[in-house]
Amino acid sequence: MSIHSVKRSQNHLAWDNSIPPVLRVKSGEEIEFDCLDASNGQINPESDSSTLAQLVFTQLDQVCGPVFVEGAEPGDVLQVEVLNIETAEWGWTALIPGFGLLSDEYPESTLKIWSINREVGYAWFDEEKKIKIPIKPFAGEMGVARKEDGAFSTIPPYNTGGNIDTRHVTVGSTLYLPIEVPGALFSMGDGHAAQGDGEVCGTAIETPIKVKVRLTVLKDEKKSRYVRTPHFNTTITGNPHAQHSNNTEDYYCTTGVGPDLRQCARDAVRSMIDYLEAEVGLNRVQAYMLCSIAGDLRLHEVVDMPNYVVGMMMPKSIFA
User: Fold this and answer.
1) Which Pfam family, any one, appears in the UniProt record (predicted)?
2) Selecting from 2.60.40.10, 3.30.300.30, 2.60.120.580, 3.90.550.10, what CATH number does the domain 4-217 have?
3) pLDDT (tens digit per residue) in 222-253
4) Helix or strand holding residue 115 (H, E)
5) CATH topology for 235-319?
């Protein structure tokens, strides 16, 4: 099977369906992406808090691509399988004035540089206090071009993906994106070594990453009807409610994306109802009840204004 590559230099700073693809692949082929961190290389291991005042914000959150997937047409679904992710040996987290959920309470610039121990899979937050963070890398940005003409910022997420900052879409996960333009025009970036749900201060452990994904076009009318925002399959470990003996649980997740948090939650639940109706055969009343009984509603992203990402996660083990 062919494995293609996209270099760091092959990036763009807006979702725009007029950007020429840097690569054309067949459905089902694998691509390796080499992505700089979200600062686009403006922050390095020797940086300190003074660096933040010099950031060129128009250069942040670049994505690598776009990749044209042959056979992809509007109305199809792009399946993105995350096969491997490798972080750098360093990362950064910052408080940037005016950015973050509590930005009004934290007006000072602060930068933390991390040392990432890839062999043991953690990074010290505070070694003296014995606070260490497990490394669970993922790409914050994964998306396809929008059907609307023009340039759309890579900072907020959209129904077509983009800056979804969803920590559960890591190695072994599968992301589903609604295709709106021929070829899909997939791009990705914004490497994270670790992040909590919400990314509340505005940054995670930001780091350069190398990622391998497999892109497959799904021409499934049933799936196309309910995948109208990013959906994904994932496995979560360390779950106290897990039904597997190895303390893991498999989930299917739907999302709501937009500027109104309550509406995002409603959209995520409604999309899960659509999924349960189409794939499990429940009627809509049963599906709504099941969402309340077994579904987990999560705030995946709350800082990339003007849009939020809310997820409804359904454990698959209940269908055994």
Assistant:
1) FmdA_AmdA
2) 2.60.120.580
3) 999 999 999 999 999 865 555 555 678 999 99
4) strand 110-117
5) Endonuclease I-creI (3.10.28)
Q: Is the peptide bond before 306 cis (omega within 30 degrees of 0)?
A: yes
Tokens found for residue 120: 């043991």
CATH 2.60.120.580 positions along the chain are 4-217
**Residue 61 φ/ψ region, left for φ over 0, alpha for ψ in the -120 to 50 degree band, beta for the rest:** left
CB 157 within 8 A of CB 186: no
The SS3 of residue 289 is: helix
Instruction: Determine contact, residues 135/121, Cβ cutoff 8 Å.
Output: yes
Distance CA(208)–CA(86), nearest Å, equals: 9
Please, which residues bridge with residue 31 across strands? Answer: 4, 213
Contact 237, 248 (CB under 8 A): yes
Q: In the prediction, which pLDDT does 156 show?
A: 97
Contacts of residue 281, Cβ cutoff 8 Å, sequence gap at least 6: none
Question: For residue 44, how many other CB atoms are within 10 A of its CB?
Answer: 12
Tokens of 190: 């914004």
Under 8 Å between Cβ of 69 and 22: no
pLDDT tens digits, one per residue of 168-202: 999 999 999 999 999 999 999 999 999 999 999 99
Sequence ranges of the chain with CATH classification 3.10.28.20 = 235-319
